[in-house]
Amino acid sequence: MSEETTADTRPEPEPIDNVVIRFAGDSGDGMQLAGTRFTASSALFGNDLATFPNFPAEIRAPAGTLAGVSAFQVHIADWDILTPGDSPDCLVAMNPAALKANIGDVVKGGLVIVNSDAFDERNLHKAGYETNPLEDGSLESYHLLTAPMEQLTKEAVQGTGVKGREVLRSKNFFALGLMSWMYQRPLDPVIDWIDQKFGDSPVAAANTAALKAGYNYGLTTEAFHHTYSVAPATLPAGEYTNITGNQSLAWGLVAASQASGLPLFYGSYPITPASSILEALARLRNFGVRTFQAEDEIAGIGTSVGAAFAGHLAATGTSGPGLALKSEALSLALMAELPLIVVDVQRGGPSTGLPTKVEQSDLLFAMYGRHGEAPLPVIAAATPSDAFEVAIEAARIALKYMTPVILLSDGYIANSSEPWKLPDLSRLPDLTVDYAEGPNQGESFLPYLRDPETLARPWAVPGTPGLEHRLGGLEKQDGTGNVSYDPMNHEHMTILREEKIARIADDIAPVEVFGDEDAELLVLGWGSTFGAIRAGVNRARKREAKVAHVHLRHINPFPANLGEVLARFETVLIPELNRGQLSRLIRARYLVDTISQSKVQGQPFKAAEIAMKIMQLLDGKDEQR
Amino acid sequence: MSEETTADTRPEPEPIDNVVIRFAGDSGDGMQLAGTRFTASSALFGNDLATFPNFPAEIRAPAGTLAGVSAFQVHIADWDILTPGDSPDCLVAMNPAALKANIGDVVKGGLVIVNSDAFDERNLHKAGYETNPLEDGSLESYHLLTAPMEQLTKEAVQGTGVKGREVLRSKNFFALGLMSWMYQRPLDPVIDWIDQKFGDSPVAAANTAALKAGYNYGLTTEAFHHTYSVAPATLPAGEYTNITGNQSLAWGLVAASQASGLPLFYGSYPITPASSILEALARLRNFGVRTFQAEDEIAGIGTSVGAAFAGHLAATGTSGPGLALKSEALSLALMAELPLIVVDVQRGGPSTGLPTKVEQSDLLFAMYGRHGEAPLPVIAAATPSDAFEVAIEAARIALKYMTPVILLSDGYIANSSEPWKLPDLSRLPDLTVDYAEGPNQGESFLPYLRDPETLARPWAVPGTPGLEHRLGGLEKQDGTGNVSYDPMNHEHMTILREEKIARIADDIAPVEVFGDEDAELLVLGWGSTFGAIRAGVNRARKREAKVAHVHLRHINPFPANLGEVLARFETVLIPELNRGQLSRLIRARYLVDTISQSKVQGQPFKAAEIAMKIMQLLDGKDEQR
Amino acid sequence: MTDTARYTRADFQTDQEVRWCPGCGDYTILASVQNFLAELDVPRENHVFISGIGCSSRFPYYMNTYGMHSIHGRAPAIASGVAAANPDLHVWVITGDGDALSIGGNHLIHALRRNINITILLFNNQIYGLTKGQYSPTSEVGKRTKTSPMGSIDWPFNPVSLALGAEASFVARTIDMDRAHTAEILTAAYEHEGAAFIEIYQNCNVFNDKAFIELTGRETRDANRIYLEHGKPIVFGKEDEKGVVVGPDGAQVVDVADVGIDRIQVHDAKAPEPAVAFALSRLSVGPHGPTPLGIFRDVSRPTYERQLADQIVQAQDRQGPGDLDQLVRSLGTWTVE
Amino acid sequence: MTDTARYTRADFQTDQEVRWCPGCGDYTILASVQNFLAELDVPRENHVFISGIGCSSRFPYYMNTYGMHSIHGRAPAIASGVAAANPDLHVWVITGDGDALSIGGNHLIHALRRNINITILLFNNQIYGLTKGQYSPTSEVGKRTKTSPMGSIDWPFNPVSLALGAEASFVARTIDMDRAHTAEILTAAYEHEGAAFIEIYQNCNVFNDKAFIELTGRETRDANRIYLEHGKPIVFGKEDEKGVVVGPDGAQVVDVADVGIDRIQVHDAKAPEPAVAFALSRLSVGPHGPTPLGIFRDVSRPTYERQLADQIVQAQDRQGPGDLDQLVRSLGTWTVE
Ligand SMILES: Cc1ncc(C[n+]2csc(CCOP(=O)(O)OP(=O)(O)O)c2C)c(N)n1
Ligand SMILES: Cc1ncc(C[n+]2csc(CCOP(=O)(O)OP(=O)(O)O)c2C)c(N)n1
Ligand code: SF4
Ligand code: SF4
Ligand SMILES: [Mg+2]
Ligand SMILES: [Mg+2]
């Protein structure tokens, strides 16, 4: 193999405005890495993009099986896109199992690039193929290209010093090189990254060699001479980074810590798909961040309640099973009226369910998952980058109203990525709080004396002389905070706790209607369905449909104008990755006969599904109800 | 004191049809016992009755303080009553604190009987009285009678052998004796009970002596010569016992065990007000009952899940904070599709709240208190004796549909009592189950192959040869039960689990409308508000109001005809001891603009409150909405 | 402990009525703790009392310091959060045998192994007081209670053994009635850096009266209280006629006269390994017969909250204090003009 | 262990693909257990495997017996329910260091003290495998993982010490690679009536490779494996040149030559008190340096489920079998005509 990586003989690439590519292989094949690097090059190149990694099983299955397939989808475009794409235009399959698990999603006529070396009898058998799909004509409706990637990788890395099992590890870079050729991505960012990551090692050399070999294989092989180019997107001017939801949520918490001047405490217990928030924060000790890997979720929230008492910006994060365990302590925080952010990165199903998959089915649990009358604010992130802002908003509400706040994210937001235009960090909201510093009623300090506007109680932190007081889970007398069994006081306090949360409605942005204000159909959504709904609505509007979209960030309380907005539309469609949970809340509150569009397949909505539902409703409106 | 207990000089008692009496004293004064014995005599005498014990604080406070007051209310009548009464006609107050804490509830003109010995300066001070209410005229609007009960008790027990602090312990029996005189209750049942309980001891002699002394004091003292009699009620013929809700619930579980032929397993952790179910069952080892006092609520349900797997009729019981802890394991049982009864004896407030008080605020928690889409049947007991039947119903549903069932009771049902006409135990429903015994599909056994009607899976218990299988919390393939990450299977299973519960609607009694079928107003209730609602509706109807009452035993799923019934009424009033939880469910499901009547004071509704609300709604109907 | 102490006991009392049953051992412990704090030269506002649920757990309401009456069993976790957030506070955990060892067992053992700077007072009355008399994880086998009418079949924990097995760096036992000894133990526990665990035998005169009578009864107490004192031979009895030896079979009670005082174990609370402390904890199963009281173990090990704080300092030294602008750029950026 | 054994290993395998990483120690343990069960003369349907969540906890899917892959940390509680409900089953718990000692620590120690008849296999790989590499309660101080990038500050548990402190009646340790020893320990644990606790060192070659290299490496293993055998002097090393003595300072490793074989501790797994077993457990902190393997303790104590069953029999003997008619009348009745 020669060292040259560019050639003047390069054919003219076909310009396309967007493409959806899926890298699929065995969990051990490094497809997440190939996908991420492809994404990074595209980002630096200036495309808009969205990604969606898909880990199918919890544990690495034996190589070659369907259960072991790992995939990474990226959507790149020269325009402002909203989702990682419904169906790949191009699939890279590193083995028969990867082909089998993913081919069904590929658009007809799409490009299928296959590592032919992996299609031996053993692997075909493991994947459950009776005949070789590369030969039996079953892929006729696709544009199939094959390359003996293992063979070529082996040759490429010769002389770099890697040996034995290590050799084939570089084959993902071969695939990445080939794809970089196909879609005319620059190699330099990848090479830089390799150098930074692996330094001056044989592995670095091997990966670079395989990368270039893949690129050159495309360049020199007739079959790969039809290439494509996606021009940079005309995104709003600014500095961008590509970010996943968990990363952005972690940074949002740190930003809130800086905006409030309070140190961040994060007590948590690892659980998919929330663990990477803990991991991201654990790296930020220099920001004064205290992460506490607790013995379980109860201690995760327990330590955070303690830290909140001690005056920190306290947060805890988990997924559904962990939220279940936190319920009792959350109720204590509510009663003690301490600020606390509880992040729930939702996953699929009840019990252990589908731990690596997306679902929005913890909404009613977040709303009602505590004994007694225990209302709490509930807010949700809509996209990976939105998680940054939502984390700050959660902190704002928690600190201003002295209440725990539940922040809902999900497995899709957590792991998928999008370009994020870096915000002006000098203009973060001012979240500074005033700890109580002295008596608030004559000579005495009443820990439950309230701010008349927010109904928040004062926050007096241990160590402050003269404000010694005791919190607790028993019902308390308003004002003094003393234990009280008085019947009327209990009713008063119950209503007061309810009212405190209800008042937040006047302190949040009203909902904004996107699309056709005069439409008959409103699509109402929340959380990670944002991209699919917005794209679906756009598609329908392109087809002349009149339709509007409202996306909720605040679910409890609802924004003050929501009822009035809903009343403007004849039909309200609520697509959710659950069995209609927001729908129930809307029905109970506004008595609107919502139409629920439900999907519980562990997968996000496709824009096409939303668009189709919209068209159906608009066409057959009369029969539908 | 002479030995004579009856005298011919007895004045003619005034016949009354019902009376509400409250015994109040320090926690150490034995008022619960006095009340219970008074109740027992009344029961044996044939009155209808209802009781309501009220323990105000968790821990015994220092004698004489308001926090230490303990009260027991009993309503006796010659007709079929429904509640322990709204306001006492007669209050027995053993000390100033008891007077102060309870006098506000007594009907004006009511009888107030006071232990005058306790009204010394120290006790008055402790109760927060500045002047002595027995002397300052503040009790003018009541009929006040005093007796130096301590002095008289001391004299009465002389010679029985009790000494020192023991002596005054008998003063509750003095009070009981006096009340027995006032309301012409027989002493013999009390004396029999004393003999049985204390045998041939000085304590027995002292209690009996004090009892008789109290009775005789009434007989011989002019002031007490206006007595009352309540004739036996004309209850349906049959054998009766007086029963509290927790007792009856425990027996219901035992009855279900016998009706199903399955041994009962009850894994639980003590918590007020559920502990006495565990305690009652622990005494029933000869019924083959296995109680397991677990290390916490998680292990309480965990052991029960294990026992269910092993083929037992498994139950676990707790109150709100414990239900919170059980949430995750409950979700496992749901996923494993194992039969399990989860009893929640609701108490007041979020967090520790008001542990000894009643509230119905766990309804939405029972409905939605699990992550993911995790629907479960929810049923509720309406009265203490109803808990027996509801326990059997819970077992029926759990076993037939292979599902956990949540049974809601509350602190009011748990501790209050009513006469229970013993059911014909030979006619318990047949709950026998068929464990799987062999293959169900060709040669193989599919643990998730379903009964086409109920959608229940088979129950194969460890120890059965050939049916070895593995359950778990990960999503499973329908039929085989193997772990499955397949998107469509997950949606299928989610809907299937939902449908299984929904189908129960056709297998439960439709709701019955009590009262005026043609009324404009329907009062819809659930749980322990039954008595107050029914009595309130009756009162309103006596005042010519047209009103109907529907009381729900099944809340999930709702009975099949509920929607149709609701549609018949213009106005639906839903009284609840919460902030409108059933109301939200009804609104979401049926889009009915319900009116919520809420009370969260740790106290049951009074019939008068319900009646008043009904009258208000009917009078000012147009303005109300 | 000077005449000029800035506090008196009254400074640590609140305006809340103390609501335990008359005669409850909790009163004595409350007095011991209040007296102890009054003698320290530590500002009142730097004490934080965190409790769970139980009779004993009402303790914080009666302490005029910062406090939280939290939820059942979780006090060690909440206290860990307070201590980790602010290492300058002194954080106390008040808990019962049910609270600490039944529902809260896991948080207890984890707080101990982490050696986070909290002082845990476990009021062991061998019963559930607040819920009115069910057996607890320290109740003896065969005990008849409301939930064990035929006798408990649960083998009890020995809290000292459990704490030692959980890597505790400070483990002691005392008894409510012995106020002087309690004060001594509190002093040592307070001075210990890291998690300190004190089991306090506490009489519940309502549901489990006289559980500790062998240690408190006039007739028997001398014969049964083995006071462990660091650096001293472990002898006890009215005339110090009994002693403890430790050898290849563990710890045994002997007549000093039989073996000679030289063979009597000299107590070493500072031994790096807890093996001998553990052996001593096995001398009694519950408070029956000769029972060791005092400090079983008191060794020093880096504390959690200090190490956490150190990591922050180190990270800031190395990377500079956190810069948000840099952080959001750390994954690489590109610019759209 | 006869030629006529009714089962082969294959009888205990299921049709589910085994989904651990290639090279994972879990494979070896699975094989050991399947082989062991095949040699028993116990019907397959009488085995129940209950696990929590973790890599190791997928075990039940691969065992052709009854089983449940339950939720994180709760397996000991669920298994206790199975065992209490049906004492004729043999109930196994499969758990990891995170599952058993982090979230599940409380259920573990309570199952041990209750001595309920379950056999607990703790796969200790000193890491969270399933969630991809966070430190666990057995990870060593200073360990750098995803959640401890500057090194863990959590002092680890010694699972054997913890189990002994929790009153366990059977406590043992073995290592995945040593299949013969694993078989021996399984046999003894299986025969033990009551809760049996086995810590199995298990290599996670993906997230914590070579954690046990001192015990498995050719060079070092002889010097570091201390096999405990009941009734035998505790000696080890290539030539049995090292030994263990137990005295007033706990347990120490010595050169046999220095002290003479007679002073070497003769291992007594049946000692009524766990003091010496505990001392032995302190010879190593994690698998570093000379580390005892084998049965630390194996004593007999009434089991929970048998006592429960006995109470039922007793109650029925005394009161007759439960009569519902009588029961509902037990509080007194009256008749309305
Ligand atoms: C989650 C939860 N479960 C159960 C309870 C009920 N409960 C309160 S205190 C207690 C046990 C008290 O025993 P212990 O800890 O020994 O304290 P003591 O009252 O003896 O001082 C129980 C079971 C509760 N409050 N919360
Ligand atoms: C309630 C809950 N919290 C957290 C998790 C995530 N989780 C699954 S396994 C695991 C730890 C696994 O470690 P270990 O028990 O050591 O098992 P290994 O994978 O190492 O065999 C965690 C944290 C979960 N499934 N459920
Ligand atoms: S019940 Fe026992 S522990 Fe509780 S306050 Fe009373 S005496 Fe003390
Ligand atoms: S991650 Fe580790 S423990 Fe889990 S299967 Fe892979 S090698 Fe085994
Ligand atoms: Mg106790
Ligand atoms: Mg592990």
Describe the structure.
The complex is a heterotetramer, with 2 copies of chain A (625 residues) and 2 copies of chain C (337 residues). Chain A folds into 3 domains: 7-229, Pyruvate-ferredoxin oxidoreductase, PFOR, domain III (Pyruvate-ferredoxin Oxidoreductase, domain 3); 241-427, Rossmann fold; 514-624, Rossmann fold. Chain A has 21 helices and 23 strands. In chain A, the strands form 5 sheets. In chain A, strands 11-10-12-13-15-14-21 form a 7-stranded mixed β-sheet, sandwiched between helices. In chain A, strands 3-4-2-5-6-7 form a 6-stranded mixed β-sheet, with helices on both faces. Chain A has a 5-stranded mixed β-sheet with strand order 18-20-19-22-23, sandwiched between helices. Chain A is globular and about 85 Å long. The model of chain A is unreliable at 1-8 (pLDDT under 50). With 337 residues, chain C is an alpha/beta fold. Chain C has helices at 25-39, 75-85, 97-103, 105-114, 159-165, 179-191, 213-216, 221-224, 256-259, 275-281, 304-319, 324-328, and strands at 47-51, 66-69, 90-96, 118-124, 170-175, 196-201, 225-228, 235-236, 242-247, 250-255, 291-298, 334-336. In chain C, strands 2-1-3-4-6-5-11-7 form an 8-stranded mixed β-sheet, sandwiched between helices. A 3-stranded antiparallel β-sheet of chain C has the order 8-9-10. In chain C, strand 9 (242-247) and strand 10 (250-255) form a beta hairpin. The longest helix of chain C has 16 residues, at 304-319. Strand 17 of chain B pairs parallel with strand 2 (66-69) of chain D. The complex binds thiamine diphosphate (TPP) (2 copies), iron/sulfur cluster (SF4) (2 copies) and magnesium ion (2 copies). One magnesium ion is lined by residues 54, 96-98, 125, 127-129, 136 of chain C.
Provide a concise account of the structure shown.
With 625 residues, chain A is of the alpha/beta class. The longest helix of chain C is centred in the C-terminal third of the chain and has 16 residues, at 304-319. Chain C is globular and about 90 Å long.
